[in-house]
């Protein structure tokens, strides 16, 4: 097996990755967290010069690691059948979402070396490196799957919210424009109040003063409680359904492994645990699945678990 193929297996094929590969991914995740922490702490006033120097050294080290990682992924991406072409495949990979995230992780540093762009803005852009964690955090993949599956419901909900927002802004404009022309002199101006009220934030910087305005505001607030909770409910139910599907998939994978091993065979439990980790399942999910299968197979005398 070539070096490129081995590196591709280490960093891209989590399902078959070795213990060393998992530690390499954890190390990269740790570098990301350390780097973002230094970005946040660097904004504190009154830091000693040696502290800022240490933060800069962490930045240089992190950029070096991220640059090697980015170039490495461009090198071994052709092992993926989707990017098999030596030139066009690499170009297609470079335009993928995660490759663009990797590029944004190092671009601010190099721009600060060669341009006159605002240094503070470039430093703050380093917070975008948090997006790199989505490659190493299975929970982020679960949330992404939920948003993808529920996108139609969420889009419809946001459309309804937009309609309610327009009606709320129009209504408060009608009843309050004469009493407070500076705050509700137009529908666009009234939308700020509508957003703050519908989301139940209620900053209090703009409030109705007429009786009709207060009554209308009460109705908007009550409708806001119902409308704002809809996206959260959709995401919560989608998350529950997604985890149920993943537990069922892991259950089927364990059954398949047991059937292939046979009564005297040996099941690769380590590989199954890595697959469970990839699916975003925690140790409790794995143990529950194994107990469930063991109860069903006890009468057969087959292998029940590790």
Overall CATH class of the largest domain: Mainly Alpha
Strand and helix order: HHHHHHHHHHHHH
Question: Mind telling me which CATH architecture of the largest domain this is?
Answer: Orthogonal Bundle
What count of domains describes the coordinates?
A: 2
Shape: extended
Q: Indicate the percent of residues in helices.
A: over 70%
Q: Radius of gyration over alpha carbons?
A: 27 Å
Strand content: under 5%
Q: How would you describe this structure to a colleague?
A:
- This protein has 306 residues and is mainly alpha-helical.
- The chain has two domains: 3-136, Voltage-gated potassium channels. Chain C (Four Helix Bundle (Hemerythrin (Met), subunit A)), CATH 1.20.120.350; 138-306, Helix Hairpins (Orthogonal Bundle), CATH 1.10.287.
- Helices cover 72% and strands 0% of the residues.
- The chain contains 13 helices and no strands.
- The longest helix has 51 residues, at 211-261.
- The radius of gyration is 27 Å and the shape is extended.
- The mean pLDDT is 84.
